[in-house]
């Protein structure tokens, strides 16, 4: 019996934006492994991190991911949010996260979603050299990092030929800056375009990033 193909997309998602949800869609619709589409794609909001300040509680970031997925994909159960890091209230390095998933779900085959801009520094990650040789990845091209040397790509890589000009067009940092330094209500239409209505409404209701 073939194992289920699962794509793992980790990040702080502080907040999640339409670019993040578009990447989920790209993975499901465009990336194939030996002719097979992925069965599911999992968003994994990070827990607390020492190397990156994430001020929004994990539970709220997780809720925003769930709301965004619901708005964009409805009841499509192929799109999920995994709470393994949020529940443990700590960030889990990618190497140990993938090992945990493999142990918890032996019936699944996992691929980690990675932007091409991270490839030059990838081997410096915790256990990066090991992951480079042993783990499987989906590489999403990012503007300015499309033509990297082949030796920067992990041994087992599926490179997405994205139909979107720049799937990373809207960053969480950009959205936070608009909220922090502008009148959020006056930018309502613009922010809803960047995040979707559900995430925007949740931010307003919970007074996030103000």
Automatic annotation (TrEMBL):
Pathway: Cofactor biosynthesis; NAD(+) biosynthesis. One of its GO terms (biological process) is NAD+ biosynthetic process. It holds the Pfam family CTP_transf_like. GO terms for molecular function: adenylyltransferase activity; ATP binding. Keywords: ATP-binding, NAD, Nucleotide-binding, Nucleotidyltransferase, Pyridine nucleotide biosynthesis, Transferase. InterPro entries: Cyt_trans-like (IPR004821), NadD/NMNAT (IPR005248), Rossmann-like_a/b/a_fold (IPR014729). Residues 8-176 form the Cytidyltransferase-like domain. This is Cytidyltransferase-like domain-containing protein. It comes from Euplotes crassus.
């Amino acid at each position: 019996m073939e194992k289920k193909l699962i794509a793992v997309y980790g990040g702080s998602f502080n907040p999640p934006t339409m670019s993040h949800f578009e990447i989920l869609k790209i993975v499901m619709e465009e990336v194939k492994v030996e002719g097979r589409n992925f069965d599911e794609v999992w968003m994994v909001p990070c827990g607390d991190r020492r190397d990156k300040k994430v001020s929004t509680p994990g539970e709220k970031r997780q809720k925003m991911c769930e709301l965004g997925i619901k708005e964009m994909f409805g009841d499509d159960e192929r799109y999920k949010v995994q709470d393994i890091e949020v529940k443990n209230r700590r960030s889990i390095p990618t190497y140990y996260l993938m090992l945990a998933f493999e142990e918890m779900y032996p019936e699944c085959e996992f691929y980690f979603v990675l932007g091409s801009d991270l490839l030059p520094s990838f081997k410096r990650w915790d256990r990066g050299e090991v992951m480079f040789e042993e783990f499987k990845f989906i590489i999403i091209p990012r503007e300015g990092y499309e033509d990297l040397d082949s030796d920067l790509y992990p041994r087992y890589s599926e490179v997405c030929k994205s139909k979107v000009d720049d799937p990373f067009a809207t960053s969480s940092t950009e959205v936070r800056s608009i909220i922090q330094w502008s009148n959020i209500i006056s930018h309502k239409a613009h922010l809803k375009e960047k995040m979707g209505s559900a995430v925007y409404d949740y931010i307003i209701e919970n007074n996030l990033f103000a």
